[in-house]
Amino acid sequence: MSCRVVVDADVCISSGRCVAERPDVLRFDDDELAELVPGAPDLPDDVGRTLARGCPSGAIGLVDVETGAEIDVD
Ligand code: SF4
């Protein structure tokens, strides 16, 4: 299963962890909040979960590419 990363900018605390870990997927916007890199690749489910779980504020979510359903990252 592949997933698409989504970021809740209202929850991001600008730790930079995701940006450092996957600069091909996430970057900082002008307010130093994480946002998706344009054209960011979809990720294998397990890779996405690891990325989401590493976010200290829980700002990163995952969506199933095929169904559009939210994926539980816990
Ligand atoms: S890991 Fe989470 S809190 Fe840190 S920059 Fe990324 S989305 Fe924001």
From TrEMBL:
User: What is the name attached to this protein's record?
Assistant: Ferredoxin
Source organism of this protein record: Actinomycetospora corticicola
